[in-house]
Write a structure and sequence with these properties.
The protein is α/β, with parallel strands linked by helices and about 500 residues long. It is built from 13 helices and 21 strands. The structure holds S-adenosyl-L-homocysteine, iron/sulfur cluster and FE3-S4 cluster (F3S). The site of iron/sulfur cluster (SF4) has 10 residues, from α6.
Length: about 500
């Protein structure tokens, strides 16, 4: 599937292929004709700018969009005064939505200066019907709108837009098929995200992701392995396996009559098995994954992480809250005690592991005592890093209609206390690496001082050390000399 496709061999005057991904390659080939005409008219190739909001899934989707536009012959720019502007949106919290509307105002001004500019919106927020309605009615200068299930159709949607000159909106309820083997353009050529599954079936009561990303679907292990082998051949050393709940990878469901029915399947590949398979790919040096749901984390996973050197000693294990009462209302399906037990098991099997988390404050009905349980959990676990969020009401989720929504001032005070504590603990935790020698994969030249480079250890610790751009993409041994709060100044071993 990942063989090179030669666009020159596609006859765009022949009939449209019905099968994917060939249908999309046909539209990409057609897009190249548009690029040629554009260049003749304007004296330069069309420039595109993609802004990504949200999580790693969205960032990876943006790489797919960049791949499609790049293959068409468009050029990437970071300047929003471009010929094609795409916002890949997130809707996990209300402020993510607000940010988009702010940006759209700015785009209107840019489009007034360049009326030929193509404005596209895509991603999670577009899966909400009230958003697309608003765009249709009030944001007429937005040209193309699509959702999370048809990212791969960008070239086709552009074609429809060129043919009709009308606002083109296509939102699918659920993926009809998972289209593989389309181009991707990575930010770094030595590391890459790899989707192993899409969607989510957990329905945590606060969360909108299952509604905008659809039902959980695992990719076939053969397809994942093909992709990773292809990435390794092209120089990728680090892969990040992506899914909303990677620990339930491989489960098979029947969604046919609207219910979610789990079909037990003895031959399914589990997540730890998949990890072991990925470890066998020559050229892949580091394997990360995101995100682990505590309810599905197995002993097998802990043992595979402990025994395979290539798997980074870092686990992101979102806890959300410390109170078992609140966890139940969140539908997280674990208790505080179970979570603490997991952390103990992980740490006793993989002693130096870095554990990070997501925590939310202000879930409906959260009392002072519930919040103290969260503070207590934070003291006991001592996270290496914790992403803290204020609960945000998402229309359509069960929590949005729960009683006892918490007063904003109370939440702010709790949030402040939590943030201060998690930051102090993270700083103290980081110090334990001081003086240790770790392998660092170099990512960039330091933005402030170009005699330094920046990279990460397997534990995801950021390290700056003397070096030049030739080191980018290389793994080098570095002494973590001095802890500077959230990062290290290191020294490369000779
Ligand atoms: N699938 C991942 C989480 C994806 S969303 C998991 O279950 O761990 C990333 C984070 O956003 C969540 O962990 C949660 O802390 C936060 N989040 C999700 N919905 C939210 C909401 N309504 N308000 C505030 N934070 C939210
Ligand atoms: Fe949202 Fe829960 Fe699914 Fe994570 S597991 S994406 S928090 S519903
Ligand atoms: Fe946001 Fe969608 Fe990710 S809602 S957090 S971009 S899955």
């Amino acid at each position: 599937m990942y063989n090179e496709i030669n666009l020159d061999k596609i006859d765009i005057n022949s009939t449209l292929p019905t099968e994917e991904p060939f249908r999309q390659y046909y539209f990409i080939a057609k897009g190249r004709e548009w690029v040629k005409t554009f260049q003749q008219k304007n004296g330069h190739l069309p420039k595109f700018c993609i802004t990504t909001f949200g999580c790693q899934m969205n960032a990876h989707d943006s790489e797919k969009l960049k791949g499609i536009l790049g293959m068409m012959g468009c050029e990437e720019t970071e300047d929003e005064a471009a010929d094609i502007v795409i916002y890949n949106t997130c809707t996990v919290r209300e402020n993510a939505n607000q940010k988009l509307y702010g940006h759209l105002g700015h785009l209107k001004n840019l489009k007034a200066k360049n009326p030929d500019m193509i404005v596209c919106l895509c991603g999670c927020m577009m899966q909400e019907p009230h958003v697309t309605e608003l765009i249709r009615e009030k944001y007429k200068y937005v040209d193309i709108v699509f959702g999370t299930h048809n990212i791969y159709k960008l070239a086709e949607l552009m074609h429809i837009y060129f043919a009709t000159s009308k606002q083109t909106i296509e939102i699918l309820e659920q993926s009809a098929e998972t289209v593989e083997a389309l181009p991707q353009k990575r930010k770094y050529n030595f590391k890459s995200g790899v989707n192993i599954m899409y969607g989510c079936n957990n329905f945590c009561t606060y969360c909108i992701v299952p509604y905008v990303r659809g039902r959980e679907r695992s990719r076939r292990p053969e397809d994942i392995m093909d992709e990773i082998r292809m990435l390794a051949k092209s120089g990728v050393k680090e892969v990040m396996l992506l899914g909303q709940n990677v620990n339930s990878y491989g489960k098979i469901y029947d969604y046919s009559d609207g219910k979610i029915v789990h079909i037990p399947h003895e031959e399914r590949t589990t997540f730890p098995e998949l990890l072991k398979m990925v470890c066998g790919v020559p050229g892949i040096e580091r394997i990360r994954f995101m995100t682990s749901h505590p309810k599905d984390l197995s002993d097998e996973l802990i043992h595979v992480m402990a025994s395979e050197d290539k798997i980074c000693k870092h686990i992101h294990l979102p806890v959300q809250a410390g109170s078992s009462r609140i966890l139940e209302k969140m539908n997280r399906r674990y208790t505080k005690e179970h979570y603490l037990g997991l952390v103990d098991k992980i740490r006793s099997t993989i002693p130096d592991i870095s554990i990070t988390t997501d925590i939310m404050v202000g879930f409906p009905g959260e009392t002072e005592e519930d919040f103290e349980e969260t503070m207590d959990l934070v003291e006991r676990v001592r996270y290496d890093q914790a992403f803290t969020f204020i609960y945000s009401k998402r229309t359509g989720t069960p929590a949005a209609s729960m009683e006892n929504q918490i007063d904003a001032d109370v939440v702010k005070r709790r949030f402040g206390r939590l943030l201060e504590r998690v930051n102090i603990i993270a700083g103290e935790q980081l110090k334990r690496y001081e003086g240790k020698i770790k392998d660092v994969l170099v990512e960039d030249v330091n933005a402030q001082d170009d005699t330094f480079v920046t990279g990460r250890t397997g534990e995801n610790v950021t390290v700056h050390f003397k070096g030049s751009k030739e080191l980018i993409g290389q793994t080098v041994a570095v002494n973590l000399k001095e802890c500077k709060g959230f990062y290290f100044i290191g020294e490369q071993l000779q």
